[in-house]
Amino acid sequence: MDQRIDPAPPLDPALLRGLTQRRYDRRDLMRMFGVGAGLGAAGLALAACGVKGAKQAPATQDDVAKYWAGKKQNGHLDFATWALYMPTDHAPLTAFTKETGITVNYQEVIQDDPSWYGKIQPQLAANKPIGYDLMVVTNGVELSKLIEFGYLAPLDHSKLPNFAQNADPIYKNEPFDKGNVYTIPYTSGYTGIAYNPTYVKEPITKIAQLWDPKYAGKIGMMKDPQELGNFGMLVLGINPETSTQPDWTRAAAKLREQKPLVRAYVQQDYTKSLANGDLWICMGWSGDIFQENASNGSTLQFVVPEEGGSIWTDNMTIPKTAANPVDALMMMDYFYRPPVAAELTEFINYVTPVPATKDIIAKDAAAATGDNKKTLEALLSSPLVYPTDADLSKLRHYASLKTADAQKAYQDTFLPISTG
Amino acid sequence: MGSLRARLTPYALVLPGGLWLAIFFVVPTLILLQFSLMTGNEADGYTFTFAWQNYTQALTTYWPQFVRSLEYGGIATLLCIALSYPIAYWIAFKGGTRKSTYLFLILLPFFVSFVLRTISWQFFLSDNGMLLGPLKDWGLLPADFHILQTSVAVVGGLTYNYLPFMVLPIYVALERVDPGVVEASYDLYCSRTQSFLKVVLPLSLPGVFAGVLMNFVPASSDYVNAEVLGGPDNTMIGNIIQDQALTVRDYPTATALSATLMLALLLGIFAYARALGTETVLEAAAR
Which fold has domain A61-188+312-384? Predict the structure, then answer.
């Protein structure tokens, strides 16, 4: 018999090999790169067909009947909006639920328009619900895109009687959505000049004063290309609403002249800087200044400049893919009841689209006592919440940027100013 | 059968991690590269056209921000090394039984959000704030002196935010230094300085290397500090990419800039590793 000894290997050969050989030889590496290249090819194949455009045919007023046919009230509603846009106890929403039986999931999830748009655009392009039936979007590039790309439901005005009756006529024909085909305002405000009288010892009346070298290093401008562009145009006497590329180029040149004097191109955080003296004079939003003064006792001033200021509107709108559009429409109309609108205004402190609120707040003020009375009276007499006719006549709408090319050209003109 | 199983085992083990990297790193990177060569706009869609001009256009427009980002990232990293090394050294060799307490203190700021911490600097450094207000009142500084919206504020913010990522790896490397080796160096007539320079420092270099990776890469691509603490002249490339991607929604420009940034950082790191001697550094780190 063969005396073959067949000892059990002391170690598993795989382990032994692992311990004694180099982990990867050149061929292994090549193979790994091969896999990578394969994945890459898959990616490129994907790319070869490109990325589909976002554009769909926008709905028209004729589509209203078609869109709303067969849509029913579902008893629930998801509402996406901005911070501080509802009294903290949500009383108006509770009352709405009590009256209609519709429960409201209220979420303050919108921080700024571009990032909100970025979040919802893929679902809308794929014709899928975004999880919200009602949202508040500022007029501007993002709203233009939502309209242009056909992402919004056309509103059925036969279900909006309170809006028809109570909205100020100036909100019924705004250039970004003439005739309120897709949107009705939630609240509005205007952009003017805010300054701190502790440091600025002369009255500010003109945008041109933002170019005054004596405020060098203490001037703030807004980073938002639309707001910044508006002021560049207004100071040159151009009406932004009807402006075109040559106007933008001139305005950008004017703004670049100002740049060495500018301390910061601000986003949301300018009121604190104004109050503590980092900035002395800055572009500002009406409601921000009212809130800062009311809540922190500062004495910031706000003016609509002689050359004009700009008016903006935060608008309620229903995404086309909403699961509960009927409930959303009911809530939109509910906000236009004067008592509800008054309750919202007392908290939000921006300009309300419902003029009838003034009498209601006056009554509330008469009935109130102490600090509460003072606040309500300040609200009533404040041109920041109820602008005077003289102020209103100086307000201009944003440039109308209806096509993707115009939007990009506008942003390419003004955005680089703040990021030099 | 057994041998097949044995051959497959290593692949099976690498599968979860490999898949993770493939799906969440390789594929997104390829998509990014692919977008950077596309033309078109959001409304009509983008098509792949080998548009290399995206790179040249983006770089001719934004090279100053690019250079500035690498500069800020580099300075912040150097400052981090200078500040972290003594801290890590002290904790590793003099920390005694309280080492973990000190490390915990270094990590404590992470319990507050990154953005909030940066915003608190904004309050602290404001023109008439806690720091500058009294100094100006005492006449030690001119009234128009300011720190916010300067490169000092941005680099300072970067240094502050990334400091722990430098302290920890250096600490780990120093902690591993065998006291016996140091003792041996004294036995061989090293002075304290010589012992540090010839023994401790070389042994801790892998930690510095890891720290540089963890500092330089995120600091150069950071956009929060420039946004919160910087002014119009302190914009970094991260802010530009954010604007292009979110506000302008010009994906080709945004991705071309991202790809260039990744490439620049990779090249920088390779050059640095080469200068330090990759082999030794990586081997020492792997020990």
Answer: D-Maltodextrin-Binding Protein; domain 2 (3.40.190)
**CB contact at 8 A, A47 and B49:** no
Q: What is the pLDDT of residues A41-72, one digit of tens each?
A: 444 444 444 666 767 666 666 788 889 998 99
Closest residue of chain B to A418, computed from CA coordinates: B232
Contact call for residues B205 and B196 (beta carbons, < 8 A): no
**Region of residue A285 (left: phi > 0; alpha: psi -120 to 50; beta: else):** beta
Q: Which of B127, B128, B148 would you mutate first to test chain A, the one with the most A CBs within 10 A? A: B127
Is pLDDT above 80 for B104?
yes
Buried-exposed string B201-229: b where 16+ CB fall within 10 A, e elsewhere = eebbbbbbbbbbbbbbbbbbbbbbbbbbb
- Chain A's closest residue to B68, CA to CA, is A420
| Contact present, B125 and B132 (Cβ < 8 Å) | yes
Quote the tokens at residue B74.
């580099």
Chain B residues touching residue A225 (CB < 8 angstroms): 247
Which residue in B3, B34, B65 is closest to A44 by CB distance? B34
Q: What is the residue-averaged pLDDT of chain A?
A: 86
Architecture of domain A189-310+395-418: 3-Layer(aba) Sandwich (3.40)
- pTM for this predicted structure: 0.83
Residue A165 CA to residue A162 CA, distance in Å, equals 5
Inter-chain contacts counted by CB atoms under 8 A, chains A and B: 118
